[in-house]
Amino acid sequence: MSAVNANDEPVQLDLSDVDKWVGKPIVFAELWNPCNETDIQRWVQAMDYPNPVHWDMEFARASRFGGLVAPQSFAVAMDYGHGCHPACVGKIPGSHLIFGGEEWWFYGDRIRPGDKLFQERRFDGYKVADTKFAGPTVFTRGDTVHRNQDGVLVAKERATAIRYLISEAKKRGMYDKERRAPKKWTAQELDEIQRLRMDWILSNREGRSLRYEDVKLGDKLPRRVVGPHSVVSFALECRAHRQNIWGTWRWNVPEGVYDPAKEDAGFDKNMTYDHEAGRIDPRKKDGLFYGPSSGHINADKAEKIGMGGAYGYGASMNAWFHDYIAYWAGHEGFIWHSQTQFRSPAFEGDVTYVDGEVIDKIEMSPYGMPAVKVQAKMTTQEGEIILTGKAEVQLPY
Hints:
Layout: E1 2-4, E2 10-12, H1 16-19, E3 29-31, H2 37-46, H3 57-62, E4 95-106, E5 117-131, E6 135-148, E7 153-165, H4 166-172, H5 187-203, E8 220-226, H6 231-240, E9 249-251, H7 299-304, H8 314-329, E10 334-342, E11 352-362, E12 371-379, E13 385-394
Antiparallel strand pairs: 1-2, 3-9, 4-7, 4-10, 5-6, 6-7, 8-11, 10-13, 11-12, 12-13
Helix pairs in contact: 2-6
């Protein structure tokens, strides 16, 4: 595809290598070990989700779960590639990517310590649109099906990746560092953030679930705040993904099968893994110091791909969304389906406010019981919307 940039020069977007993989199974990678209690506790700590049923052993053992249980958001940490890898195959020369959104279906089983998930992944397809951020931009879709060690279907994810030409993003300068200088928060402002954070923690720490009949259209969920975001918080989020811990995964490509996920996606040479060197120095493929994700904590690298400064993970934003809804729904609640759209990353220095409300009640849901639909959005301290999403949630009835 070609388009025209601000200087009336044709922009070429070579998708010939992407077209080969539409509809095909891809990304044969597997985590070695089942998850344990510490994996779950590390996850909720990194996502700043202090629901005690996920980290407090005594509280969890006294709960209806009888022990620690993972939040539904944890499914993405049981996978390779932050859930997005099936949406990023095929070489687009001179490109990079950011996450664009996620759609999840859950099937009733919760992840517990000792579980291991096995994945089947495929590249669903793509569309091309002209964006303010980078001109001609490819919105790719990748599907992942998760089953546990007993073959039970646990979840399915459809991830959207935004693949763009670095040169075009830098020309447009939407995220230039001059516009994205990290905010310096005063002590008074930080006190107010902590007050709001604590109010949310106390809003349902016991895990109470409203009954379906007691919920009304327009009911507001308590406001949540996450942040201020920093290079430290981004690094903690990265390390909470089990794949980003040294030696936790392997390629398991079937004999005779070619997997494009192992090959060059067209990224800048400064933003690629070195799998061969990683056999000796595991930093070379750990996703934090090297590779496509290293711009999240390295402002200089982020500038080179048109992002202007350190920025957060789309998978984390989706986790904040899932955790926010689940906390309101309580221990008897369950998210059956959700869909989110990411409009902008969470940048260093910003905070993220999460607000939600009930927008529908579904007497005859596809899940075999009544469900409520909740709509949520995330905004910065400037009021900029960075995520919108909806979820269909079971409540007791």
